[in-house]
Amino acid sequence: MRFFIAGGTGFIGSHLVAALSKGEYACRCLVRTEERAAVCKRAGFEATIGDITDRESLRGKLDNCDIVVHLVGIIEEKGDMTFENVHVEGTRNLIEEAKRANIKHIFYQSALGTSIDSWAKYYKTKAKAEDIVRTCGIPYTIFRPSLVIGKGDGFTEKLKELVRLGPFVPIPGSGNGKLQPIYVEDWVKCFLTLFSNGSRFTVYGSQIYEFGGPEHLTYNEIVLQLMEAMRIHKPLVHIPVKLIKLSLPFSAISRKIGSLLGKKIPIVTGEQLSLLQADNICDMDSVERNFGFVPMTYREALKKFIVRGS
């Protein structure tokens, strides 16, 4: 089988490409720059320049491929890179080209909590993208993981910045919203369980998988375990979400001041703050039940990619 990977140089994509490069796989990666193309070429794969938000740039790029792996997504909007443009229009462009190229199967990376009725634009646009995939007439697989963590993940990088920032760690609200972190290498293992050469699973049916790591952790517990891995000891201070949101219009100024003082202040949006207050969990045995193995705990995963003092 020949993969066409969109998003192969992002966080999850880079780990997947690295894993595929160790096996006998044929891949073509869609990248936006020559610099990113070099990353895929070093892995032994073909690279082609294009952007899912630009339909014309995709023309002919999927020819002679079997499976489209759609990993492109954003967690915050910047300029023209809106949730609607990337998640919805980008997916529509990719699917239309997949149909033209007679692709046999579509893989789409969605998210746990995705719903067309969600108040969050992130989840609502992910649901719209899922609908485009599900109704396109091509067999599909959709992954809806909870929080995926590992070297280079945006969530952990922001949390590390926050932990280093001052004499205490600010926690939005109660910090009791639950997440189900899954290590990125376990995510890759789930993917390869379905799509590896000689897999006992068929990739030509359609299926949606909701899954996460083997434990439900509150945001407080996640912060404390990360601090433990970083060998940092600071108190947690809970701050009302409304108060933090009131300060968001001044966050750009705060970041400039912070940079002058040698401090990196993470970017956060109102939507992200609100999402932290809600549970994002599913069955704790979801990976074992669907993919046949027990994934790492959050503490075990942190040991794989957090270096003391990093």
Task: Give a written overview of the molecule.
41% of the residues lie in helices and 16% in strands. By secondary structure, it is of the alpha/beta class. It has a domain at 2-145: NAD(P)-binding Rossmann-like Domain (Rossmann fold, 3-Layer(aba) Sandwich), CATH 3.40.50. A seven-stranded parallel sheet has the order 3-2-1-4-5-6-11, with helices on both faces. A two-stranded parallel sheet has the order 7-10. A two-stranded parallel sheet has the order 8-13. Helix 4 (83-100) packs parallel to helix 5. The longest helix has 18 residues, at 83-100. The N and C termini lie far apart (39 Å). Residues 250-261 have low confidence and may be disordered.
Strand content: 15-25%
Number of strand elements:
13
Please report the number of helical segments.
13
Order of helices and strands: EHEHEHEHEHEEHEEEHEEHEHHHHH
Poorly predicted segments: 250-261
Relevant CATH superfamily of the domain at 2-145: NAD(P)-binding Rossmann-like Domain
Shape: globular
CATH 2nd-level architecture of the domain at 2-145: 3-Layer(aba) Sandwich
Helical residue percent band = 40-55%
